[in-house]
Design brief:
With 263 residues, this protein is of the alpha/beta class. The radius of gyration is 18 Å and the shape is globular.
Length: 263
Amino acid sequence: MAPRIAASDYLNSALLIFSFQHGAQRDRCTLIPDAAPARCAEMLRARQVEAALIPAIEYQRIPDLLVVPGVAVASKSQVRSVVLASNVPVEQVKTVALDTSSRTSVSLIRILFKEFYRIEAEFRPAAPNVPAMLAENDAAVIIGDPAMTFDRTNRHVYDLAGEWRKFTGLPFVFAVWAIHAPEAEKLSGVDFAAARDEGRAHRPELAARYSRTLGLPESDLVTYLTDNINYDLDAENLAGLTRYYELAARHGLIDEARAIEWR
């Protein structure tokens, strides 16, 4: 049986899964798309899949994982699709709704509030419904396609990758491909880096497709896939990920910042 992999179908991950849906990798595994990032992690934890594109924080929480080298969903500066939307300036925020489909970003906002803003706030899990989140809370963490399409009128909007870069000088890694270590041999024929590269070659096609569903200009989405999202796990991105793990451990979001084990 072909190995199973899971990934969300947000625009930010569409480039990474294109090859598994339509390209050279489509016969090498079975892709389970349409899953929210948090759901992908739960599927990998439950061994319902052999690999998944998971929130970066979940590598530290799920045992027996290996990270695929060189590939990530990251941002060197402004990511645009992971934001804190607020009814008031951030220094006045008392309550924050946390999108339950996210794991990495909701941990990031806790780090930003505790380590950098030095603001005590109440964090409340919430379904990813932007009007409801902001009707009941001062602010909300919003990820993925909804973060690019919600009404920003009279909102204070903080790009979380931009905030991280401002305080640390480092890029931010949102997601990585992770493999259940005992099943690694089953995925020996799956080339995640080649899949990424094939997806890069199809950025205009992906932008056209998502332009229709998101209602945003194609040129804007090509820029997003080229400049806002970075798909490498290079030395700079790895330094940002390491710093994130250190701060997550400091603030009790993970037990410890264990070293990454590679595929």
